[in-house]
Amino acid sequence: MVKIELFEVDHWILSQSSDIKHNLAHSYCLPKSLSDVQRQAGSSEIGTDVFSPVLSKTLDYGPMKGSEALRSNISNLYSSESSSPLSIEKIVTTPGASLANFIVLFAFLGPDDHVIVQYPTYQQLYAVPASIGADVSLWKTSQSEDWKLDLDELEKLIRPNTKMIIINNPQNPTGAIISKQTLEQIVKTARSYSITVFSDEVYRPLFHSVSPTDPEYPPSILSMGYDNTIATSSLSKAYSLAGLRVGWIASHNPKVIDLCVNVRSYALITASQIDEHLASFVLGPPVRQLIEGNRALAKQNRNIVQSFIDKNSSVCEWARPEGGPIGFIRFVMSGRPVDDVVFCTQLLEKRGLLLVPGRKCFGDGVNFSGYVRLGFGGDTEELIAGLGALQNFLQNEYMDVPVYPGA
């Protein structure tokens, strides 16, 4: 029997569902309707012209790899960055990025394999390999180094049976990004050992603190000129449409896609043609305005959180996020990290504010004690109200929060 760890983030949010007045535990950009997307793109209200093709379509299983229109638009997201265009045959769709990640990991890894995983990161990326029986090494980063990856450490972690290097760019929960130069060095190292690089890019291209004209702007892993690279993403985070259950797997290596299609066949036959049709609309002409709007919102809201942290610098700090709509904030008492689980529990009980405790949901004990993940990609007024509740807690109840005993 496969044993898999409790998925702590989802379990935490599900188990804390009562009396929520301010939800800053989310990790996506402000959810939108299809009408919102079309208005933001400067078009008229969404109408039957978008829906009519599926209204009249016979709903059979559809193409095994996903609709050609959708895969063509996904291809365009990557091809503009690379000298080697990504053909639609090298893309396979899934219902969301979580299943895309699961398929990649299940397709490639076994009990005799070793994987190196950027850390901290989304629990799925290290818990699923471990459940399969793979040996997992955590490529650890720290706030003191702005969560930057140490390339010398990567070399030390490689073993003869290292099968895969797993990265997350931008990173959940810190909002850190992996620069172009670092990506190039990761690929150079992986190529020299024939290791596959798998990049969860679900928050891409939401880089709100680095310009696309910056030489270090992070391209997709697929633009690195190395066939043994895999990227996954979806519409859930940067594109504000988690309700359209559409994600994808992409690789220049056709053998990678064949492996993933085979595993995907065991989990589902095809994805929803209705979701895929609507996703192809979103990733068409509206996509640029959608991302630009979300990037501006995330940057504005990130600055609001920064002002809050500056005001309360005696008790909290972070390495300022550069991408994604999330940040990892460390709370201390007289320089010692607080018990983040107690902190988050009391915040919800006393102020109705939901945050995600780092030690429970992203860390192994003391490493992330005192840390909480805060989502700032939503409505600005709701963010301000949530931070107001947090400010009131800091002023009135914070002294009752214990420090973490292992600190």
UniProtKB/TrEMBL annotation:
Example of a GO MF term: catalytic activity
This protein's UniProt keywords: Pyridoxal phosphate
CDD domains recorded: AAT_like (cd00609)
InterPro entries documented for this protein: Aminotransferase_I/II_large (IPR004839), NHTrfase_class1_PyrdxlP-BS (IPR004838), PyrdxlP-dep_Trfase (IPR015424), PyrdxlP-dep_Trfase_major (IPR015421), PyrdxlP-dep_Trfase_small (IPR015422)
Sections of the chain in a coiled coil: none
Residue span, Aminotransferase class I/classII large domain: 58-383
PANTHER family recorded: AMINOTRANSFERASE FUNCTION, HYPOTHETICAL (EUROFUNG)
Family: Belongs to the class-I pyridoxal-phosphate-dependent aminotransferase family.
Protein name (record): Aminotransferase class I/classII large domain-containing protein
The organism of origin for this protein: Penicillium steckii
Lineage of source species: Eukaryota, Fungi, Dikarya, Ascomycota, Pezizomycotina
